[in-house]
Design a protein that fits this description.
By secondary structure, the chain is an alpha/beta fold. The chain has 2 domains: 6-214 and 303-325, Aldolase class I (TIM Barrel); 216-283, no CATH class. Helices cover 40% and strands 13% of the residues. It contains 14 helices and 10 strands. It has helices at 6-11, 28-36, 51-62, 84-94, 110-115, 127-135, 161-171, 185-193, 203-206, 215-221, 248-257, 264-271, 273-283, 306-325; strands at residues 17-19, 41-44, 69-74, 98-102, 119-124, 140-144, 176-179, 199-201, 231-234, 242-245. The chain has an 8-stranded parallel β-sheet. Strands 9-10 form a two-stranded antiparallel ribbon. It is globular and about 65 Å long.
């Protein structure tokens, strides 16, 4: 039996599960696989070298699925110089189902996207950002706990999903999507029970058959020696706190940050996207790059197809919600 929520109704998808944007992973192969499995696949905008390349990737994705899919646009001009206005226009012109906006304010682009019929989701790591996004007119807010790869964004924002989600669903008027180390049906059930309309997963989708990354990365993610303690936080001193896989590179970045008064140029050789791209696509060497990884690594033990993964998650969520309903009994008083 399908799970029907405001998210599935708004986007026309079968399951209330979104695939989060992932740099150098969110290609048409990944997005179409998730969409074909009933979720909402996401192309990562800045994975493409320029706006026209994104347009081509959107059109390529349409040859691989007739289901809804979206585009992630992460606005970080200080770290990733790009023609964000042009990327945003392509999203509108191509009329994708939804845009997942991260890091930047949605205020500038939301009117253009909504005029084109594109639903706007803002990825918020704090309640204050979520409220501002709602004020800017977004259709959905994705609230991200400290367990996830955004990890708060800046010092002082280290708040887990358990608190953020309870607060967001009680304060926001727009539908809320839960994010931050999600990977199981139990978590989907808990999110729905708390008032969320679905979940977003990223790290869990890395470990699927269709994920366009080196097999050695997938084998690392499902290795029993890896668990929820296998991540660490970097770039917090630069107000861009990110949860990444714990390895020699991330430890070196933390060492540099501990010295104080750090600028991005000091960590750039270690944190560069080109280094991570080489790992994803060529070497599979998980020890030689800084790469985003949530604590959901502790929940990964296999490499299923996207279809099998989503079917399993939804079935488990249905079971957990049914069990929860049995706790509600008529009072004998």
């Amino acid at each position: 039996m399908p799970l029907k929520t405001a998210l599935t109704e708004m986007l026309g998808i079968e399951h209330p599960i979104i695939q989060g944007g992932m740099q150098y992973v969110g290609y048409a192969e990944m997005a179409s696989a998730v969409s074909n499995a009933g979720g909402l696949g996401i192309l990562t905008g800045l994975t493409q070298p320029n706006p026209e390349a994104l347009r081509a990737e959107i059109r390529r994705c349409r040859t691989m699925t007739d289901k809804p899919f979206g585009v992630n646009l992460t606005i970080l001009p200080a770290l990733i110089p790009a023609d964000y206005d042009a990327f945003a226009r392509v999203v509108a012109e191509e009329k994708v189902t939804m845009v997942e906006l991260a890091a930047g304010s949605p205020k500038k682009y939301t009117p253009m996207w909504k005029a084109a019929g594109v639903k706007v989701l803002h990825k918020s790591a704090t309640i204050r950002h979520a409220l501002k996004a709602q004020e800017a007119g977004v259709d959905l807010v994705e609230i991200v706990g400290y367990e996830g790869s955004i990890a708060g964004g800046q010092p002082g924002d280290e708040v887990g999903a358990w608190v953020l989600l309870a607060k967001a669903t009680s304060m926001l008027k727009v539908p809320v999507i839960a994010a931050g180390a999600s990977g199981t049906g139990r978590q989907l059930a808990a999110a729905l029970a708390m008032g969320a309309q679905g979940i977003t997963m990223a790290t869990r989708f890395l470990c699927t058959v269709e994920a366009p990354i080196d097999q050695k990365v997938k084998e690392t993610l499902m290795n029993p020696d890896m668990d929820e303690r296998s991540t660490t936080i970097v770039l917090g001193t630069l107000s861009n706190a990110t949860r990444v896989f714990k390895n020699g590179v991330s430890k070196k970045i933390r060492e540099i940050e501990s010295q104080g008064d750090v600028d991005f140029s000091q960590v750039m050789p270690l944190a560069s996207g080109s280094r991570a791209k080489k790992m994803w696509q060529e070497t599979g060497d998980t020890e030689d790059a800084m790469w985003s990884c949530s604590q959901s690594i502790g929940l990964i033990s296999d490499i299923p197809t996207c279809k099998d993964l989503l079917s399993r998650i939804v079935a488990e969520a249905e079971d957990r919600l049914s069990v929860g309903m049995r706790c509600v009994v008529a009072s004998k008083l």
